[in-house]
Amino acid sequence: MRLANKVAIVTGGGSGFGEGIAHTFAREGANVVVADLREDAAERVAAAIRDAGGRARAVRADVSREADTEAMREAALATFGDVHIVVNNAGTTHRNKPILEVAEDEFDRVYAVNVKSIYWSARAFIPHFRRRGGGVFVNIASTAGIRPRPGLVWYNGSKGAVITASKAMAAELGPDNIRVNCVNPVIGATALLEEFMGMPDTPENRARFLATIPMGRMSTPQDVANACLYLASDEAAFITGTCIEVDGGRCV
């Protein structure tokens, strides 16, 4: 097993990409803390992992809050005794619409969840990783941070910030044996799909977006989880500061 005896925290683990990551890590031997804003969703995923023979704990967490981020760490330490891997997956977006129609509260929420969460994660886990001699951050950014679409200006910017911050963290934390990498999915069939499209989720509207992806489909939770698994594993021991596009060629 590629993550045997490791302890991983997955934020936004109650659905979508995060759910896929949590299940994949558990199948590969990790003890998983499933953190989500919706406690019932986190518990559903954690229960499914346990039913399959894995080890998991659910935690309710708003990743834009320092106290909640610290509570995730403490829950992992109390239950499993360590933290080796943090997957910062939780994210949100404003609806796809013209730049001047995005309200200030929408902007603030996008940056709090997508960017400030990385700040709180760094503050909560870097001291722990330094004490234990290393650790891994996998930050879920987006192809939007590399090849932005119109109508998602501030979301695009937030994911660009995640990418740049991750590279800067990798440069600074390398001497501490702390690796920091990104995974950049393309659009997926998650709860945010209609917000990203800015229109109803119909086969016709999906086709408009799929036409921009050379391989002709969306990212799946398993696609994203496979990339995260590699970056979190010891196979990637000398890989830091990189981004893996899981996008079917969207960014080519």
Automatic annotation (TrEMBL):
Keywords: Oxidoreductase
Enzyme class per UniProt: oxidoreductase
UniProt keyword annotation of DNA repair present: no
EC code(s) of this entry: 1.1.1.-
InterPro entries (UniProt xref): NAD(P)-bd_dom_sf, SDR_fam
Superkingdom per UniProt: Bacteria
Gene3D superfamilies found in the cross-reference section: NAD(P)-binding Rossmann-like Domain
A Pfam family recorded for this sequence: adh_short_C2
GO molecular function: oxidoreductase activity
Similarity annotation: Belongs to the short-chain dehydrogenases/reductases (SDR) family.
Record NCBIfam families: PRK07231.1 (NF005559)
Entry protein name: Deshydrogenase oxydoreductase
Taxonomic placement: Bacteria, Pseudomonadati, Pseudomonadota, Betaproteobacteria, Burkholderiales
